[in-house]
Design a protein that fits this description.
Keywords: Membrane, Transmembrane, Transmembrane helix. By secondary structure, the protein is mainly alpha-helical. It has one domain. Helices cover about 75% and strands about 0% of the residues. The chain is built from 2 helices and no strands.
Length: about 70
């Protein structure tokens, strides 16, 4: 039982982290070259955090569903 609780909490953490990174990527994409949270991210560079956020979010949801 302890193992499933750890998996669910770790999955929830990954899903939340993924959602935050996806939101950051969306804001950086729409900022039109202005610094976002102190980082200068161009439109092309905003794709990398979006993909990483999708991976984290998907892994978190998968951990929650499989436990």
């Amino acid at each position: 039982m302890e193992k499933n609780n750890f998996r669910r909490s770790f999955g929830a953490g990954l899903a939340i982290l993924g959602a935050v990174v996806i939101l950051f990527a969306c804001v950086a994409f729409l900022s039109d070259g202005k610094p976002t949270l102190g980082l200068d991210v161009s439109r092309g560079e905003a794709a990398a955090p979006f993909i990483v956020g999708l991976i984290f979010f998907g892994a978190g949801i998968n951990l929650i569903n499989n436990s």
